[in-house]
Amino acid sequence: LVYILSDFVYIIIYKLIKYRVKLVRSNLELAFPEYSSSKRLIIESNFYRHFCDIMLEAFKSIGMTKKQILERYEFKNQSIVYDLLKKNKSIVLLMGHYSNFEWAMSVGHYLDNVKGVGAYTPLTNKYFEKLMLKVRKRHKGYLVSRYKIHDYIKSEEEKNNLNIYGFATDQSPRPTDKTYWRKFLNVNVPFFTGGERIANKYDYSIVFGLAKRVKRGYYTFKTFRTTKKTDHPYDITNQFVEFIEKQIREHPSEYLWTHNRF
Fold this sequence. Notes:
acyltransferase; membrane
């Protein structure tokens, strides 16, 4: 039923309302100038189908049981997380807005004695923020405003609590003195570096998280270890950008193009 509805919503959002089509098209032109316009239109159309799916899947998850969501969102390599937690240190998880990133909060169901904490950017529309928090908290996800995350981590450290702190590292922040600029999909853009800075401050391990679509409504989630390879102050952020860009180039329709990325 959800996917029948998704097909209907796709027609309304993409064909009739044309929700953010100009922005999506502009993003794709900047990211893939080497592609023909017809190829970009195929990516655009497939993206809107994917977008409608993950939007409705997010709402659907409110009524899903733990068993139901774990059948559809499988955490494949939990052992990496448990091995790193043996250091008795929390972990920083870097992710992008790729595939079904909304269900990533549900991986907390797989983990014992550790809390998944996601740093999020508060929305100006408080109704939608409340709805977003409800969706993401439904399956063992705990959310903290990115403006309060430093104080929260300091408090958790004082209590000796082990957590996994998740950061969406591909968002475009407002430029500040802590903003890091680099090329991403052919465009020079600013990146959040809070995850890497926090990991450096507290000597946390950093892992990359990646969701992949298996088939409609089913996904796998994996984590990938990472270590500094150079003396660059944002070496891990650089590695992450290369990591997520590789995934986007392989399956461009699964990236979230409706936001102003560039």
